Amino acid sequence: MNAIVALCHFCELHGPRTLFCTEVLHSPLPQGASSGDISGQNEQAEEEEGGIQMSSRIRSHSPAEGASADSSSPGPKKSDMCEGCRSLAGGHPGFVSHDKETSIKYVSHQHPNHPQLFSIVRQACVRSLSCEVCPGREGPIFFGDEQHGFVFSHTFFIKDSLARGFQRWYSIITIMMDRIYLINSWPFLLGKIRGIIDELQGKALKVFEAEQYGCPQRAQRMNTAFTPFLHQRNGNAARSLTSLTNDENLWACLHTSFAWLLKACGSRLTEKLLEGAPTEDTLVQMEKLADLKEESEGWDGSEEGEKPSSQPDVVEGQELSKCSPETSLMPDCSSWNVAHRRLSVFRSLRHMRQVLGASAFRMLAWHVLMGNQVIWKARDMDLVQSAFDVLRTMLPVGCVRIIPYSDQYEEAYRCNFLGLSPHVQIPSHILSSEFAVLVEVRAATRSSLYPTLFDEEQSLSKYEFVVTSSSPVAADRVGPTILNKIEAALTNQNLSVDVVDQCLVCLKEEWMNKVKVLFKFTKVDSRPKEDTQKLLSILGAAEEDNVKLLKFWMTGLSKTYKSHLMSTVRSPTSSESRN
After folding, report:
1. Is 381 helix (H, G, I), strand (E, B) or coil?
2. 47-51, 121-125, 323-327, 389-393: range with lowest mean pLDDT
3. Is the model more confident about 61 or about 356?
4. What are the residues facing 5 on neighbouring strands?
5. Rounded CA gap, 560 and 526, in Å?
6. Which band of pLDDT confidence, cut at 50, 70 and 90, is reported for residue 571?
7. Residue 339 has pLDDT above 80, yes or no
């Protein structure tokens, strides 16, 4: 995070002062702190913690050293500083932490070496301890502008038995130019900075109580009440923060805390590329998850015996597979299934087309796209599951209703993908229906049926697939446009499987957009059939198969989209604009 974190103090003699600041450097060290100034001895003493290396920084001069400081240094002169205004002693090298992951340096010293940064920090320090103060003078506040940066400031008091009112005023400020980023980081910064403040106040309170117990200052001041206060103060009145907390390693600890704060605050927020509104598949998935959550909460409040179990589990866009009663008694049922699935039966649509053949795959894909019931009969549940996982990629999520494996036939209104065991009898009217396709998986009579796939690692070489339907797709039939494009992508060997998957996503989005237009035109606006035919011609979907596909895919639209359209139609503003 490109920001500066600083600890500020309101000195009773010199006013607001910057005590300690940590800045982020993406380049070599700033003025007066070149890489050659770092001694090899300190490099060997580096300590690693959380991916950050910490070491002392040797500088050729320090602004706090007064006479030895360069005349162009932006820091205050030694005569303008007291013990309460100074953090690092004269000649102290400061601190540097190296983040090896990002090659970023976190540099801590009393003042920034760059004159412009010094001016920005100085102005933020003055404002945080004078005019920009929250009610009660202790707490967080936000201020700033485009020219001098934006500041998150948290003021607080530190107990001091020698100070006026027995306390001194401090603030921790975070300065950066990105206003939105700083505002979004408010909860994070508030919690972490509040923790640093609590630790400082806790240490100072122990010192304060010990001093008050040994030599109470309140009674002593009452006895000298008429003596001017300024004459009472000796040189010890201005005390450093290390003296108030009795912690000699205070500045090293603050450097570690500030460096971690800058790194963590910069890592917690990341930019994401928004490619537009959520797709229909995303909206449908969110709706199904919400329905499942409500259903689970409903069953939590009822008895387990009340849940109906006579029907197989069906979820639109999802499937709930179950082991049979016999296999569910096996303790290693799930692990056996996982190991068996590793055989990777159907890996992709291209793989399925190679196994079934071009004509059989086209017939099966046509029925899938038209919304007809696809029935698979096989002993291997994992084989059926893999087939459904591959075929469902051609449909929108809202059009998918799967019963992965059942011991009885289920009607088409309940599922368009149905897996059955071989002994299940299918009604004759279903076998003769043109709205269903049956895929029977049989044991292969000879291994030479699939010579290209015969491999010990391939489980498909032992199967024979028979695809039958009362409505066969003629070879010379044009078919839906999306099916022709899918087959063209599958036959193009220059396209990898991942590229084909992305082509499917684009094709589904293209046709779902046509579905949305048709839905609004026919269901919402209630246009006549003549206008609908003209619209289909414009959309390039006037053929019979394309019209059937659009009508089926219309059932996969999300409830969110439908309710949005209906609410827009009912609103007075929309009716007025239409008139």
Report:
1. helix
2. 323-327
3. 356
4. 22, 174
5. 20
6. low
7. no
Token code pair at residue 373: 């019931």
Task: Indicate if 508 and 439 belong to the same structural domain.
Answer: no
447: nearest Cα among 431, 464, 434: 464
List phi, psi (to 5°) of 477.
-75, 140
The predicted-structure confidence for 399-408, as pLDDT tens digits, reads as follows 999 999 999 9
Q: Print the SS3 string covering 517-543.
A: HHHHHHHHCCCCHHHHHHHHHHHCCCC
Instruction: Say how far apart CA 10 and CA 378 lie, in whole Å.
Output: 81
**Is there a domain that residue 531 lies in?**
yes
Q: Is 578 helix (H, G, I), strand (E, B) or coil?
A: helix
Give the CA-trace dihedral at 8, 11, 14, 16, to 10 degrees.
30
- What is the predicted pLDDT for the residue at 7? 93
Asked if 56 contacts 89 with a C-beta cutoff of 8 angstroms, the reply is no
> Exposed (0-12), middle (13-18) or buried (19+): which is 420, by Cβ within 10 Å?
buried
**CB neighbourhood size of 500 (10 A):** 18
Instruction: Check which CATH number belongs to the domain holding 401 and give it.
Output: 3.40.50.12430
pLDDT at 220: 58
Helix axes 349-356, 497-519, angle to 10 degrees: 100
Domain limits at 356?
A: 349-444+461-476
pLDDT of the residue at 192: 93
Count of domains observed in the chain = 3
